[in-house]
From TrEMBL:
The keyword Flavoprotein does not apply. GO terms for biological process: response to oxidative stress. This is NADH:ubiquinone oxidoreductase subunit. It comes from Sphingobium wenxiniae (strain DSM 21828 / CGMCC 1.7748 / JZ-1). Residues 83-132 are annotated as: Disordered. Pfam families: NDUFA12. One of its GO terms (cellular component) is respiratory chain complex I. It comes from the Bacteria. InterPro entries: NDUFA12. Keywords: Ubiquinone. The keyword Hydrolase does not apply.
Length: 132
């Protein structure tokens, strides 16, 4: 992404302000399987260490895995790899929010699926003001 992209696109990766703040005050803590990079540095008004993520792609909080979400919110102190037990065989990988993408759920009556609903089965009666 070029310099103009960094200036004008806040939704894809880090802006120039975030990049400058990260270079000045941030120290890299780790990276997840999606390529998101996690940093910490400085202190917030509550006395906690500031923690943030620079996304590898679109900025979407649903792209942060559960273990790193816990780290961002100070539930665990160190990098998740050193503080969490290994994943169980029944656990699934986190998936990003698919809303607005081709992978989004669309029920049978949705416009993207032709806009045709199933016919009513007659298990209800429509309300009319004269019937009351």
């Amino acid at each position: 992404m070029g310099i103009l992209g960094k200036i004008f696109t806040w939704w894809n990766g880090a802006t120039i302000g975030t990049s400058l703040f990260t270079a000045r005050k941030g120290s890299k803590v780790g990276e997840d399987h999606q390529g998101n990079v996690y940093y910490e540095g400085g202190v917030d008004p509550n006395g906690l260490t500031r923690r943030w993520v620079i996304y590898n792609g679109p900025n979407d909080a649903s792209r942060v895995p559960a273990e790193w979400h816990g780290w961002l919110h100070h539930s665990i102190e160190g990098a998740p790899e050193s503080f969490l037990p290994p994943p169980r065989i029944w656990e699934r990988d986190s998936t990003p929010n698919a809303t607005g993408t081709v992978n989004a759920y669309r029920p049978s009556g949705a416009l993207e699926k032709g806009g045709r609903r199933q016919k009513a089965t007659g298990d209800y009666e429509a309300w009319s003001p004269e019937a009351s």
